[in-house]
Each structure stands twice: as C-alpha cells, then as structure tokens.
Amino acid sequence: MDNMKELNLNELEEVSGGKGGSKEILPRKEGFICYQIEKGDTLGKLAKRFGTSVAKIMDANVGLINNQNDISRGRYIYIPR
Predict the structure, then answer these.
(1) Which helix H or strand E contains 43, and what residues bound it?
(2) CA-CA to 11 of 20 to 30 Å: which in 24, 33, 35, 65?
(3) Counting beta carbons within 10 angstroms of the beta carbon of residue 32, is it exposed (0 to 12), middle (13 to 18) or buried (19 or more)?
(4) Structural domain contains residue 35
(5) CATH number of the domain that 76 lies in?
(6) How far apart are CA 16 and CA 41, in angstroms?
C-alpha cells in the first residue's frame, strides 16, 4: 500500500484519461484512492489487494479504463476504499 497517496488539492487539475488510466495524478474523489499502476498489476490483483471487486474498480474509472485488460504501468486510476 505504499502507492496510496494523499493528494494536495491545490496542485491538481481535472485531467482527461488516456489508455489505461490517466498520465497525471487524478483529482481527489471522496471514497477513492488515486493509485499508480505498477509492473505486474492487474485489476484482479488490485481488487484482491484493496478488498474490492474488478467491477467496482471499472465503475470508478469510466472513461479511464475501457476493459479489464486496459491498464498500463505508470497510469493513475481510482481504487474504491
């Protein structure tokens, strides 16, 4: 859980998503963690690690993740708390 970041709202701007998440840190979203994808991450592994489901991660990232395999290293996504 080292990648859970407390975000400074003053430094964030709304960003548009790219393939597999956003290239930029995402704005704070109540009830969610902004997570940077690491090598070897899958939505299934992340769901298990954070005690949620792939469906909930997908729902939290509409427009950022188009399908379960659409994540790439270095991108940011939301993970439900």
Answers:
(1) helix 43-50
(2) 65
(3) middle
(4) yes
(5) 3.10.350.10
(6) 22
Structural domains in the chain (count): 1
**Whether 42 contacts 49, CB under 8 Å:** no
Q: State pTM to two decimals.
A: 0.73
CB 67 within 8 A of CB 38: no
- Give me the mean pLDDT over the 1-10 stretch: 46
- Sequence-ordered strand ranges (E) for the chain: 32-36, 76-80
- Assigned domain for 7 exists: no
Least confident window among 9-13, 28-32, 33-37, 44-48: 9-13
